[in-house]
Amino acid sequence: MVRNTVFVQVLQLLSRYDFKRCVDRYSGDKYTKHFNCWQQLIVLLYSQARSLKSLRDITISLQSQYRKWYHLGLTSVARSTLSDANNNRSCDILRDVFYDFLRKCQSLAPEHRFKFKNPLYTMDSTLIKLCLSVFPWASYRKRKGAMKLHTLLDHRGCLPSFITVTHGRCHDLKVVQDESYCFPQLLPDSILTVDRAYIDFIWFNTLTLQRIHFVTRAKQNLKYEVVGQHTQPKNKAVVSDQIIRLTDKETKKDYPQNLRLVTYYDKEKDRKLVFLTNNFKLAAATIAELYKHRWQIETFFKWIKQNLKIKTFLGTSENAVMTQVWAAMIYYLLLAFIKFQTRYAWSMHELARIIGEVLLEHVDIIEVLKLKFDKLKLLKPDPYQMALALKI
Known about the structure:
Layout: H1 6-11, H2 16-25, H3 37-49, H4 55-63, H5 69-72, H6 79-88, H7 92-106, E1 120-130, E2 145-154, E3 159-167, H8 172-177, E4 191-193, H9 201-209, E5 213-217, E6 224-229, E7 238-246, H10 249-254, E8 259-266, E9 271-277, H11 284-293, H12 295-307, H13 318-342, H14 348-357, H15 365-370, H16 373-376, H17 383-391
Parallel strand pairs: 1-4, 4-5
Antiparallel strand pairs: 1-2, 2-3, 5-9, 6-7, 7-8, 8-9
């Protein structure tokens, strides 16, 4: 009989040594007697797994399971204590925990589905609407509040390799250009796909000098001249594959090198798409497929908004909101790590639902994920029935 609950098994994936190092870096447990940073993270991850929306829901749910506090390492749970911890303890603690665990997940992440070995990334942002009167720091419009979640998605395992949150008015391009946001330095020969909001030829020139390839949609008002033809396209959907040079006075100064312009016909939507890139090696059809693959980041944003608690918050201060966001991202990495390690064949949504349902049950998480749905229904709070279900 497994003695640890599923939740304890999930928490054991996080290194307590690395976590303590992050806490000590910001003196997170200074003057703390009862509710330390580790207990705070436990409660926040519990609320993510159980999709709890308020402090009252969290405390009631945990108080109903007080017999299992010992295994979790909890000693007390109070609304005011949790609220104070979210407001006063630096959210940078959980940010550092996220990036420490990210490196562990990346070591197990499966490769992207393209044949080339170049690292593949997508940069984009999503808007999270907030009430301006409740969150006055999140100014967006005159009477509306919002914050932006900027993410660099690594297609190797669909992992968020860089995350930062800004106010809603912050332009997407500012995050990748301003050094204060700490946008990571990509490896040479990496491929970065972005939408037209990121078109800036000064930044594109910087990427080219760093030997980083970019793929984006060309704007309709782009001024250029054709200086040559690329290799004859073999795919019939490729209308043209041209080598161009910018002719506008300012853009030519910002980006003096040649570029590649690929025109592709999308048969499904009956329209022509024009792509701009500095990659001259990949086939034109692959360039189009790369940009189509950029949609994975939209799927990622949709998933975290539907399955993680990043739209309703436990506190109103900026630190409390960011603490909850980083806890949600840590929980996403935990799910991804379990999926990679167990080679779970079904979707992340099903994985999250299964773990959420058996979170405090004394069963082996590996055995639970191997059960078929009809046997999973046999899992009951009674330990004898759970043991029977695992033996079938």
